[in-house]
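Hi L., both proteins are below.
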Amino acid sequence: MSQEAERVYTINLGKAWLSPNNQRAKRAINMIREFATHHMKTEQIKIDQDLSQAVWKRGIRSPPRKIRVKMAKTDEGYVLVSTYEEEEKTKTVEEKSKAKDKKKPEAPVEELEEQIEEKIEEKEEEAEVAELKKEILEPKEAKEKPKAKPEEKQTKQKETKEKPKEAKPKKEETKKKSESKEKKPVKKSAKKSK
């Protein structure tokens, strides 16, 4: 195969989302076929199994919005359409591993161990200083807090006791009113009967 026979395209499949949700993946496959027919100038299109799986991976309702494909004309006269992502991934992984190897200078193990020990000692000293500060400050705060708490509790209890006393007279007044209303209609009915 020559260079002209192989091409890489990014196909926009966004219009597949305009079709009903239970036909989107089918429509995406058909769009890939139409795209290949138009750009490769042939009606004989074969879609690779990996490409089909990439489109159907998330189900019939949510195909990808776009996909990168490689189209190649074969000697038999048809076009083979396959995914291009796999080749890109392998290239980028190789490039990244080479870049990491170049960037990492090899340092002696002993120097690294010494640096780690120094950092550990610094953190231990900081922790000891922090503990001393806490010990010094805690007794003062502990003495102040108990004094403030009983005063708050006493005021809250007084407020709650006063409220029920106010509520009791209201209930008694309403009872007296209801009793007086009941007696009056009884007297009226007695006068009418005479």
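That was the first. Here is the second:
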Amino acid sequence: MARRSSGRAGPPVAAPDTPAPSPARRPGRRRSDAPITVSDDWPDMVPVTDHEARIIEAFFADVLDELFGPVP
């Protein structure tokens, strides 16, 4: 009788000649302590469509009511 797989995969097994990644050299990690430069090139008024405004109101109604009070 064949055994059924539990559907769970075990931990990944690396090839014996593959070195383990070093936590200090993960991809995307900054190597210098230089300050990060942030630039703001957005316009003063960002256009929002009616559909986008309805979605924002639907998902953030409670938060918006806390910040600005209920809509009269």
